């Protein structure tokens, strides 16, 4: 700027300077002082935030220090290899030639995708496979990621894009559009969680009754203690994430799924940002509404975690905190273990009709069956509703939910509490960027907290990736100490957060 002023000044006014004059000899005492602009400042102002430029620096695959790097370089190709094996297992069971050839076409496309990932190819447009979300994906690529590759696009977008491309491998086929390459794995982890499954079914099969002759105050105290423990079960149920369990032994999985009281007390101190008390204050007030409020779960993983979510939702209904629970799943296979409609139906039906657990007692089997029957009745009478909005399977974060899916924002604004489960939902809430760990949750989630009509939002997440916020005023110190003392604390699933934003419920939703 100042250079332009000097040039134009020298051309239009005063005598021409002798050649070789030093700029320093000019007297500029009446001009404003020079400002030293930092090359970039964070957080970015709202107007300069976009999917490739989050409010704080994005995580990208080429950051060798981040989990993004390991995911893009190793984990995603491994997941694809396993997915190809799954499809080939299915090929081996087929007899009709047209089905075989069609499915082998899917394998070929998966192999091409794997080669692109391993060769760090440029992100291309999604092909027109007849799906309703093609335009939304290609709009985001055109506006923010044109010419970017798997490693230099934001990690969040590149990873989500991979699952959409995997979807495309099948939607371009004649007969296999609904094939789920992860279905076998998802079913397996539920079947292998015997101890934890029956621990919960035997405790919760009978509708809950308070002890006789206790006061209202005592009842509320008892409910509060149960709420705390069930919140933790719902939280740690999130440890079961198939995309991360690739190298875990069964023993390790079992210890992650532990539902015993002692283990829960131990694990409470691993909840680094803990708003469970505030959550209880909010939930207990819902009892005052006509037979409870509306609670929404934005689901994460199928199988054991979904089962824990349902136990929690059942408790909220039985205690009169919720009169309606809406569960939000994915439209197609997503981040390996996420819940689809098929997984939802599979869980409820296999509880009632299945023979998944050959070694349990008759009483245990009955407990699981009765629990499943109660949940199916909730579905029939509209107490529980399963939904699958297309926005949950896009590369956009939830900062853009208000602008890119206004119908969904309006829908959620009518909820009394929206619980986001798991790591990916947390990444999307917080724009998956390097915000300081002391950043308040309601600041980190942008318009999901600040837009008029934003519902109360809770994130229940075991920490499995780089973004960590909401640890309180000394959060930066806590994170710095953990960085020093415990390698991999952000990806082990050993730590967690339960964070709440009050939102702006009741205000009229507005769109620009
Ligand atoms: Mg998941």
Fold-level CATH name of the largest domain: Rossmann fold
Mean pLDDT: 89
Question: What ligands can be seen in this structure?
Answer: magnesium ion
* Assembly status: single chain
The number of helical segments is 20
Q: Tell me the number of strands.
A: 7
Order of helices and strands: HHHHHHHHHHEHEHEHHEHHEHHHEHE
CATH class annotation of the largest domain = Alpha Beta
EC number: 3.1.3.-
Region (Disordered): 1-23
Cofactor: Mn(2+); Ni(2+)
Organism: Phlebiopsis gigantea (strain 11061_1 CR5-6) (White-rot fungus)
Please characterize this protein's 3D structure.
This protein starts with a helix and ends in an 11-residue tail after the last strand. Helices cover 47% and strands 7% of the residues. With 512 residues, it is α/β, with parallel strands linked by helices. The protein has helices at residues 2-12, 67-91, 97-118, 134-145, 155-171, 183-191, 194-204, 216-236, 250-256, 261-268, 276-285, 304-318, 341-353, 362-380, 401-404, 406-413, 422-429, 441-444, 447-450, 475-485; strands spanning 271-274, 293-298, 322-328, 384-387, 417-421, 457-462, 496-501. A 7-stranded mixed β-sheet has the order 1-7-6-5-2-3-4, sandwiched between helices. It folds into 2 domains: 60-171, Transcription Elongation Factor S-II, Chain A (Up-down Bundle); 183-501, Uncharacterised protein PF01937, DUF89, domain 3 (Rossmann fold, 3-Layer(aba) Sandwich). Helix 3 (97-118) packs antiparallel against helix 5 and helix 7 packs across helix 14 (362-380). Magnesium ion (MG) binds next to helix 17. Magnesium ion (MG) binds at residues 241, 300-301, 335, 337-338, 422, 424.
């Amino acid at each position: 700027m100042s250079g332009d002023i000097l040039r134009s000044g020298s051309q239009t006014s005063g005598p021409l300077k002798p050649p070789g004059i030093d700029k320093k000899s000019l007297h500029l005492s009446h001009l404003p002082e020079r400002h030293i602009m930092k090359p970039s400042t964070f957080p970015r102002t709202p107007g300069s935030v976009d999917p490739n430029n989050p409010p704080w620096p994005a995580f990208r695959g080429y950051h060798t220090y981040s989990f993004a790097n390991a995911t893009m370089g190793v984990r995603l190709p491994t997941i694809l290899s396993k997915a190809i094996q799954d499809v080939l297992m299915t090929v081996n069971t087929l007899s009709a030639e047209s089905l075989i050839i069609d499915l082998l076409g899917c394998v070929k496309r998966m192999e091409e995708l794997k080669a692109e990932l391993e060769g760090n190819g440029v992100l291309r447009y999604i092909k027109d496979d007849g799906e309703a979300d093609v335009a939304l994906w290609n709009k985001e690529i055109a506006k923010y990621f044109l010419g970017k590759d798997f490693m230099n696009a934001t990690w969040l977008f590149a990873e989500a894009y991979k699952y959409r491309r995997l979807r495309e491998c099948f939607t371009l086929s004649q007969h296999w559009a609904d094939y789920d390459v992860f279905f076998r794995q998802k079913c397996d982890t539920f079947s292998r969680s015997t101890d934890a499954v029956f621990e919960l079914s035997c405790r919760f099969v009978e509708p809950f009754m308070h002890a006789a002759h206790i006061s209202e105050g005592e009842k509320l105290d008892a409910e509060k203690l149960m709420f705390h423990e069930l919140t933790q079960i719902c939280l740690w149920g999130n440890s079961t994430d198939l995309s991360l369990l690739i190298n875990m032994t069964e023993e390790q999985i079992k210890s992650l799924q532990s539902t015993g009281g002692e283990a829960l007390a131990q694990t409470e101190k691993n909840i680094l940002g803990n708003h469970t008390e505030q959550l209880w204050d909010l939930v207990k007030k819902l009892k005052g509404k006509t037979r409870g409020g509306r609670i929404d779960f934005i689901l994460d993983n199928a199988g054991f975690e979904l089962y824990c979510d349902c136990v929690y939702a059942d408790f909220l209904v039985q205690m009169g905190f919720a009169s309606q629970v809406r569960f939000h799943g994915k439209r197609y296979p997503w981040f390996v273990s996420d819940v689809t409609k098929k997984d939802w139906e599979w869980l409820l039906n296999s509880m009632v009709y299945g023979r998944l657990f050959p070694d349990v007692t008759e009483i245990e089997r009955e407990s699981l069956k009765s629990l499943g029957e109660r949940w199916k009745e909730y579905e029939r009478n509209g107490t529980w509703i399963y939904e699958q909005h297309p926005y949950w399977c896009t590369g956009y974060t939830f900062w853009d939910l208000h602008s890119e899916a206004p119908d969904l924002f309006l829908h959620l604004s009518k909820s009394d509490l929206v619980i986001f489960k798991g790591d990916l939902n947390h990444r999307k809430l917080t724009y998956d960027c390097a915000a300081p760990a002391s950043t308040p949750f309601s600041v980190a989630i942008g318009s999901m907290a600040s837009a008029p009509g934003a519902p109360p939002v809770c994130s229940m997440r075991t920490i499995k990736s780089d973004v960590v916020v909401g640890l309180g005023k000394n959060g930066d110190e806590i994170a710095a100490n953990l960085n020093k003392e415990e390698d991999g604390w952000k990806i082990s699933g050993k730590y967690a957060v339960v964070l709440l934003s009050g939102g702006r419920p009741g205000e009229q939703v507005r769109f620009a």
